[in-house]
Design brief:
Two copies of one chain form a homodimer.
Chain A lengths: L24 E5 H18 L2 E2 L9 H9 L5 E3 L2 H9 L4 E7 L3 H13 L4 E6 L2 H14 L3 E7 L11 H12 L4 E8 L9 H21 L8 E5 L5 H8 L7 E5 L11 H17 L18 E12 L2 E4 L14 E6 L8 E2 L5 E5 L4 E4 L11 E5 L4 H4 L4 E5 L5 E6 L3
Helix pairs in contact in A: 3-4, 5-6, 7-8
Keywords (chains A, B): Lyase
Protein name (chains A, B): Amino acid deaminase
Organism (chains A, B): Microbulbifer bruguierae
Chain lengths: 413, 413
């Protein structure tokens, strides 16, 4: 499946450089999207793991459909509302990487299971109290609910912290016939700081061993046992460790989300570390040597905006802001500069042009006093991280490499 | 006009405490909304200025209609898309407190003027280049465009910085018959730090004097001359200074936006300073003494969420995050705590419960080890500032004081 409509005459498509799009706009390069899509699918295929990309990143059903068509096992999402979007986009397996808490939310899931009887939906669980609440609700609704036991990181977020919690939780789940324990889940992305790689490795090994232990104890009520981890920073380690056992019932599932558009900030850094580890791995004798892909992920999401004002020397004001772009992992970074009606094509933005501040609807950019810049010039900016840029938009423009708009993709936040 | 449907049987309305709403949800208390609405309208009425509330805060047409019905002169917005929403909500005067830059954006405004022939639309201008671009575009489209000359703050954002810029800009505007200079605008909210009040006062006096000066020079092509300023922090000073002249053609217009729902963070602080200044003013002989309203603005916007996990002592995880609430002016603050099925009514949240972190879809809350809290408990949290909470939601729930949902108001971001 492709978003590209090659039969269309480019002149009939709206073009960014011809100023046929009001700015600011959020654009995704189709070629980079397709590249990243295939890159990650190849990776999981070669590693013998399954992919349930985290859909919360884009919440764009058109992109979910691409991910599923490329071979994803299912979709990961974070909320019951997002689960419905994933099911609507054709996912038959949906992993809600979150606890299901509260009657209103349980009702959403219950209705979803009625509307999609074939849907395999998994939720996380980490407390006896939640097991009781879910057990009661789904006993009343006479529906089965598949659960993954979450193992957390001390000082991190959700998830059981010790063996006693795991034991008590498994016992409680067994009291409720509607609750089916179907696997174990973790999110290692919460481990930061010094010696992160060692601690991530240790944590993942522990999680795998808990899963193997629960298997031995026959705690799972499903034939296939899911063992899932991985954001976009450590998916290589998760793949490595979650296939390292001799238990055929275990299905290792990775859940990266940001890889699809990637970025030029925190995920570019994280991916550089992934690539280093993959190269290191290639040099060992343990693997076949084809795990390190020849090309890397590409940054494919940009905000396009206008220079709106040049009010004083050294300062440009752009017409986008916190309502248009992520700003919590560094400010957006100018990538391209284009003067409509004058330039034949965008040029790489001067490295000296740097954002110094951002407000709701404006961004401040520092420029040299003699910068070649005018009110009405366009800038394309990369942002980090992608999740918090996507959620600012109701529509994402998918463009070709000539800046023609191939498709307007609706988001469903 | 009121959002309250008093004829409805409360039992037939969905209720937050009965868990009939999936959480997280963004709610606005109708009583506080109505209070704030009337508070600000009374203020401007008494001060002899007009109100064009900044609609970008809520981007909720149902609230725009309330503001207009309460007596607002028009609506302020930040973009051409927002201008269309304001016009659609019935505003006949729309002040776009922003430069109109780029063909795609000019086309949106041009189409809007065609669709709403009675609409009085004003845009800001601060550069000769932009005047040329607008002049050319609107000469081609044969439409008139009303402009307000923006005066900026040094080191701040958009707006002319000196008399030479103002002079050159006025000259350029005069070359283009379609461009109508209709007034002067500033945003004093960019002045921060030490001696802010003195610097704000001085800046506002300068802006007023520039307007008076341009009037003397007959630079305005409209009968009525707009003199506009004010976010939600200094509107009292703007009102004070922008009426302090003897020029009947001048129409002073305030543009606060956040007052409608207020907050418990930066705008609560700013409003405390406003109230102090109003009290100080009452004690002088200059005013009649009825400018200080008996009650203050009320915080009316909350995020309701569940306690999703209590994974380790001292830590609770809530099921909302950066995608649900503002987090750039302090983290959300727990206000109410409610245990569904047990508590008769929400209690004030323990002051020791404090957010320590926020991720895309989760928040971390510090609690005492012996806190009376359970998975499945509800929390209501205030946020700051409101603009960046509103834009996370496609629907806002308007509730009565018994937590019944009176109306589901669509946002138009």
């Amino acid at each position: 499946m492709s978003l590209s409509h090659n039969t269309q005459n480019p002149r009939s498509m709206r073009n960014l450089l011809r100023e046929e799009i009001p700015l600011p706009a959020a654009v995704v390069y189709n070629s980079r999207l397709q590249h990243n899509l295939q890159w990650m699918q190849n990776f999981v295929n070669q590693r013998g793991v399954k992919l349930a990309p985290h859909g919360k990143t884009t919440m764009t059903p058109a992109f979910f459909r691409l991910q599923l068509a490329a071979g994803a096992w299912g979709m990961t999402i974070a909320t019951p509302q997002q689960a419905r979007v994933a099911a609507g986009a054709g996912a038959t397996r949906v992993l809600m990487a979150n606890q299901l808490v509260g009657r209103g939310n349980m009702q959403l899931v219950s209705a979803l299971l009625v509307d999609y009887p074939q849907l395999e939906l998994y939720c996380l669980i980490d407390s006896v109290e939640n097991a009781r609440q879910l057990g009661q609700f789904f006993a009343e609704s006479r529906q089965n609910l598949k659960l993954l036991l979450e193992i957390g990181v001390p000082g991190g977020r959700t998830g059981c912290r010790d063996a006693a919690q795991v034991r008590a939780l498994c016992e409680e789940i067994q009291h409720w016939p509607q609750l089916q324990l179907a696997g174990v889940e973790t999110y290692e992305g919460l481990i930061h700081g010094e010696c992160a790689e060692g601690r991530v490795t240790e944590h993942l090994q522990q999680v795998r061993d808990i899963c193997l232990d629960l298997l031995t104890q026959e705690k799972f009520t499903t034939e296939s046992v899911i063992l899932s981890g991985a954001g976009s920073a450590w998916y290589d380690r998760v793949a490595d460790i979650f296939v390292d056992h001799n238990e055929p019932r275990i299905l290792p599932i990775l859940r990266p989300g940001c890889y699809l558009t990637h970025d030029r900030g925190i995920y570019q850094q994280a991916q550089a570390a992934v690539m280093q580890r993959l190269e290191r791995l290639e040099k060992t004798e343990r693997f076949d040597g084809h795990y390190c892909p020849p090309e890397d992920l590409q940054s494919g999401l940009e905000i396009w905006a206008y220079v709106q004002s040049l009010p004083e020397p050294g300062m440009a004001i752009l017409n986008f802001g916190k309502r248009d772009a992520a700003y919590d992992a560094g400010l957006p970074k100018p990538e391209l500069h284009f003067r409509p009606g004058t330039d034949p094509a965008p040029r790489v933005a001067d490295e000296a042009w740097q954002l110094t501040g951002i407000m709701d609807q404006h961004a401040m950019m520092k420029i040299p006093d003699d910068a070649d810049i005018q009110v009405g010039d366009m800038l394309a900016l990369s942002t980090s991280h992608p999740c918090l840029t996507f959620d600012k938009w109701r529509q994402i423009l998918v463009i070709d490499d000539y800046f023609n708009v191939l498709e307007v993709a609706d988001t469903c936040f």
